[in-house]
Design a protein that fits this description.
- The protein has 13 helices and seven strands.
- By secondary structure, it is an alpha/beta fold.
- The protein has one domain: TIM Barrel, CATH 3.20.20.
- α5 packs across α7 and α7 runs parallel beside α8.
Length: 313
C-alpha cells in the first residue's frame, strides 16, 4: 500500500496497513535535523517516511507601500502549473499531497483590521464587517481554488476559532458570519474537483462547531489539540463522520515528557483514535525548538512500533 493509498483509505474510515502520519518542524528544528543526520537538503519528511507532504503555491509579493486590505494577489497560471508539477512528483512517489497552510477568512480579517475590531464589528458596524469578509472570501476562493486546480489530494484551509478552553466567538456568531463563507469556499473547491478532500485547521477548543464542519463537507479536522478537547468524546461522537489529524499534544506530551513517556502517550492515542480509520497521526501543532529533539525521535519510534491497527490496542 502506498502512502497516498494509506491516507485515502484512512480518510474513508477504513483501516489501511498502518496509521498514516506526519509532522511539521520549525526552521530551527530542520537545522537540528541536518546536524543530527548529516542531511544536505533537510528533507526530514523523506527521512522519517511521512505519508503526507506539502506543496507550495508561489504568490506575488505585496509591495511595501500597498496596505494589506488593498492587496488582492491573483495566483498566476505559471505558479499553478509549478504547483501541479510538485503534486505530480509526489504522486509518482506514491505520496499524498496537501498545500501549505493558508489562513482562512477570520484569521485574514484580523490581519486586515485587528483582533478587537473583528470581534466588535458585528455589534458596531455589521455592514462594514460583511463587506470585509466578502472581499476576503473572494481572495480565499482564488487561493484555495488554485491548489484544487493544481491537483492536491487535500486542500488545507481553516481558521483559529478556539481558545484553550472555549470558542473565541459564540456558535451563533460563527454560524452568522463565517459558516456561510466557509461553505462557499468548500462548494467552490468541489466544483473544481469533486473528489478533493478538505482539511480544516483550528487550534484550541472547537468541539461545539464539529457538527457544523461536518455539515459543511469538511473531511478532516486538523490540530485536534488534546489539551483543549476530549479525544475520546470526539472519536465516540464524530469519528464515523470526520477524520482527525493531529491529537498528539505539543504542550502536554512532546514539551514535557521524557522520550519513553512520549512513546507511551502516543501509543495510547493511537489505540484510542486509530480503530476504524479516520485518523492521521501527528502532533497538534508545528513542532518548535523548545521541544527536545529526542522527543521528535520518540514520536516517530512510537508510530513505527504501534501504528499497526492491532499492535497499539
Amino acid at each position: 500500500m502506498t502512502s497516498r493509498e494509506r491516507v485515502l483509505c484512512a480518510v474513508r474510515h477504513r483501516e489501511p496497513d498502518r496509521v498514516p502520519f506526519n509532522l511539521r518542524l520549525t526552521d530551527a528544528l530542520v537545522e537540528r535535523f541536518r546536524r543530527e543526520t548529516g542531511s544536505a537538503d533537510g528533507d526530514y519528511a523523506a527521512h522519517f517516511g511521512h505519508d503526507l507532504r506539502s506543496v507550495n503555491l508561489r504568490l506575488p509579493s505585496r509591495p511595501a507601500d500597498v496596505p494589506r486590505p488593498e492587496w488582492f494577489p491573483k495566483p498566476e497560471e505559471q505558479a499553478v502549473a509549478d504547483c501541479a508539477a510538485q503534486v505530480t512528483r509526489l504522486r509518482e512517489q506514491g505520496l499524498a499531497a496537501f498545500n501549505s497552510y493558508v489562513c482562512g477568512v477570520f484569521e485574514e480579517a484580523k490581519f486586515w483590521l485587528d483582533d478587537a475590531t473583528v470581534l466588535t464589528l458585528p455589534y458596531e458596524d455589521p455592514d462594514r464587517l460583511a463587506g470585509v469578509l466578502d472581499r476576503i472570501t473572494e481572495l480565499k476562493l482564488l487561493h484555495y481554488g488554485a491548489y484544487a486546480r493544481a491537483g492536491v489530494d487535500i486542500v488545507f484551509m481553516g481558521d483559529d476559532l478556539g481558545a484553550q478552553n472555549a470558542l473565541i466567538m459564540s456558535p451563533e456568531q460563527y454560524r452568522q458570519w463565517y459558516r456561510p463563507r466557509h461553505g462557499r469556499i468548500i462548494a467552490h473547491l468541489r466544483s473544481i474537483n469533486p473528489d478533493v478532500l478538505v482539511a480544516f485547521h483550528c487550534c484550541g477548543h472547537v468541539t461545539p462547531l464539529v457538527p457544523d464542519l461536518i455539515e459543511l463537507g469538511v473531511d478532516i479536522l486538523e490540530a485536534v489539540q488534546p489539551e483543549a478537547m476530549d479525544l475520546a468524546g470526539l472519536k465516540r461522537e464524530y469519528g464515523r463522520h470526520i477524520t482527525f489529524w493531529g491529537g498528539i499534544g505539543n504542550q502536554s506530551v512532546l514539551a514535557r515528557l521524557k522520550p519513553d513517556e512520549v512513546v507511551g502517550s502516543v501509543r495510547r492515542t493511537l489505540a484510542l483514535m486509530a480503530p476504524g480509520g479516520g485518523y492521521l497521526a501527528s502532533p497538534c501543532h508545528t513542532v518548535t525548538e523548545d521541544i527536545p529533539w529526542e522527543n521528535v525521535l520518540a514520536f516517530h519510534r512510537a508510530v513505527g512500533e504501534f501504528g499497526g491497527y492491532r499492535a497499539g490496542r
